[in-house]
Design goal:
Shape: elongated
Distance between the termini: 73 Å
Helix content: 25-40%
Structural class: alpha+beta
Number of helices: 3
Oligomer: single chain
Amino acid sequence: MWFKNLKLVCIFFTVGLINCGEVHPERLTVGEMKCSHCSMNIVDMRFHTQLITYKGKRYHFDAIECLEQFQKDKDLKTQKIWVTNYLDTNEFLSKDEAIIIHSDKIRSPMGAGLAAFKTHEDSIPFQK
């Protein structure tokens, strides 16, 4: 009897520890998901942004400006926010570490001209 209880306790702790690991951004296929704020299909992956709450709920956005408006509208406890590197759509950056600029040279899906870059040097050609 005690062996069954021990087995259940071990399984419980193993599942708990696996779920406590570091969270990572999800890769999407173009057009697979709709923006959590404006409901447009996410088709330009240079602007794809993700937010995950402490409860594990994940939200996807088609532009940085949709993410920002969504955060203003909702009172969520955010665990992590990722933005896509404008120059490399396979690379996600933490929003806290990314260089986010506003530029007339950038045509974001919602028209605000916001884009994320890994370094300040990468963003220079897009600045006025």
